[in-house]
Design goal:
By secondary structure, the protein is mainly α. It folds into two domains: 46 residues, no CATH class; 151 residues, no CATH class. Helices cover 62% and strands 0% of the residues. The chain has seven helices and no strands. The chain is elongated and about 75 Å long.
Length: 280
Amino acid sequence: MRCTPLFLDLMLVIQAQGKHSCGITIPDGLIGVDDVDSPPVNAGDLRKCCSDNRSPAMSPSESTPRHTFDSAEMGVIAHLYRGEVYRSTIWRTRLDNTTNWSIVTMGIALSTTFSSPEAAPLPLVLVGLLLAVFLGMEARRYRYFNVWRARARWLEMNFYVPIFTGEARDDSWQVILARDYTVPRHHISFVRAAGRRWRRNYVWIFAIQAIAYYGKIAIHPTPAATLAEYSDRAAVGPIPGWIVLMTGFAYYFGWLALALGTLWLDQRQHAANGDEVAMG
């Protein structure tokens, strides 16, 4: 039974959704039409007309229907995911480049310093400054890499995983991802990025540099017999050796403090998010 003629006087009060709660489709082009010549509609007739087509009413406490992607939207999301994975792969390669530069530079400094017992340990001091520059470049690149990685991971956990497991997901993940595309930003600070890269890669490079430097002045040209002799070998021009040694200790402990501080920040953020996957 069709009751479309009875709805013509109610077009002004129907929301512009294209459907009435009775389940009868109403053309969007008719919404807003005011037919003043139509007879008044009786509420009883309207209830009787829709009795056969009425769907169960949704209580206010029930959630709104989840958005279902059609085949075209699924294809778009698949291509979007491929693009994010590609960009994260490119920036991951750039991260590896700066790490390789640091390793090669360290190798050159070690070769120069230990080429002979009379060689000065100064190249190891200078390479420490160069490592800091490379770490800064890598931290900047990591901030960009983290954007693409976070988006790809977000799609995996909120789009692909529900497809495989069949578990329901809240549609808020789409809003969060859309906001990240609308207003792009870095997800972590430069300091946190530097701390992550130092803990994962550069801690070993700096450790080798420190062992090589302090070992060099301890054994070359002959093993140091006293602490004073050890300190004198660390002198650089007019700068006393004890100042150079104390500066080196402060340099390494500063990096260690950065690594532990940023580790604490990461753990605090992950604890606040619980088991959820966060953007960044």
